[in-house]
């Protein structure tokens, strides 16, 4: 059996909570948000599981919360395949525009900084603010982030 490689970007395993909703111009009534979490994230899109299948080419809005903020990212479903192990549907999406990809990447960075803050707290034994952790994170990784996007 030949495996077809669809990936255009490196995927980073990351578990971020999200909810999504299928958007259709012809649909008068809004559908409910369906909760999930990311399996992985890349510059081009992300992968998440769902109890419900979604037709490829469907347009969706993904809501990615962090603390008291919600980031909305528009995407298009490119694949929906039932996972034989979990019996859930693995939904792969592409971001609609570069700015959507950038928003998703920023959310990813925020979650990574929060994890970094937790690590610093354990190492130092004292509380570290998100702002302080962000400054340290930026000093460590901003050059790499800049190379990726500019």
Q: Can you give a write-up of this model?
A:
- With 150 residues, the protein is an alpha+beta fold.
- It has one domain (12-149): Thrombin, subunit H.
- Helix content is 31%, strand content 33%.
- It is built from 2 helices and 8 strands; from the N terminus they run ββββββββαα.
- Strands 1-4-5-8-7-6-2-3 form an 8-stranded antiparallel beta sheet, covered by helices on one side.
- Helix 1 (98-124) crosses helix 2.
- The longest helix has 27 residues, at 98-124.
Total number of distinct structural domains? 1
| Amino-to-carboxy terminus distance | 39 Å
CATH topology: Thrombin, subunit H
Oligomer: single chain
Helicity, as a percent range: 25-40%
**CATH homologous superfamily annotation:** predicted glycosyltransferase like domains
Look at the helices and sheets and give the structural class: alpha+beta
| Overall average residue pLDDT | 85
Q: SSE string, helix = H, strand = E?
A: EEEEEEEEHH
Strand order of the largest sheet: 1-4-5-8-7-6-2-3
β-sheet strand percentage: 25-35%
Taking Cα atoms only, what radius of gyration do you get, to the nearest Å? 17 Å
Supply the CATH class: Mainly Beta
Residue ranges: pLDDT <50 for 5 or more in a row?
Answer: none
Number of strands: 8
Can you tell me the overall shape?
elongated
Number of helices: 2
Second CATH tier, the architecture: Beta Barrel
